[in-house]
Specification:
CATH class: Alpha Beta
CATH topology: Rossmann fold
Distance between the termini: 19 Å
Strand content: 5-15%
Order of helices and strands: EHEHHEHEHHH
Largest sheet: 4 strands, parallel
Strand order of the largest sheet: 2-3-1-4
Shape: globular
Length: 148
């Protein structure tokens, strides 16, 4: 059965590192919006169009992922998917395609996330304030949701 691997976590949690490892291990195609966004628009976190641009890229990647699943390929989406509602909606779409979805939670304490962001190369310039705001929104994957 085709598999959509879904990376779940905040910036700095190791989603992309894990996604790259899964891609090497399984041969699945990795779709990371930050890579495309930075190449197309650069460091635009401070611009009002950033969120709309990012959502458009994720939308295109979602369509591409579904098309690839229908063609029999496994895919990795490195989107974050911070809320259970988002993950449940995606799971329903993937199931309707006849594929399965595997969640890969990437969690770390807030201080560790910010430390990683400060030392990484590439990626968006994320402030501690942004990370704190996002941390309030983020819903970690539960054992029930992960199917454990």
């Amino acid at each position: 059965m085709r598999i959509l691997h879904v990376m779940v976590g905040l910036p700095g949690s190791g989603k992309t590192t894990c996604a790259k490892a899964i891609a090497l291990q399984t041969g699945a195609l990795r779709l990371t919006p930050d890579d495309w966004h930075l190449r197309l628009f650069g460091q635009d976190m401070h611009l009002p169009d950033h969120d709309a641009r990012h959502e458009a890229i994720e939308g295109l990647m979602r369509e591409l992922a579904f098309d690839l699943l229908l063609r029999g390929l496994d895919v990795i989406v490195d989107f974050g998917l911070w809320t259970r509602t988002e993950r449940e909606a995606l799971r329903a779409e993937v199931t309707a395609l006849g594929a399965s979805m595997v969640l890969h939670p990437c969690d770390a304490p807030l201080e560790e996330l910010f430390g990683r962001i400060q030392t990484r190369t590439g990626g968006f310039a994320v402030t501690l304030q942004m990370l704190q705001e996002w941390h309030v929104i983020y819903e970690p994957v539960t054992a029930e949701e992960a199917g454990v």
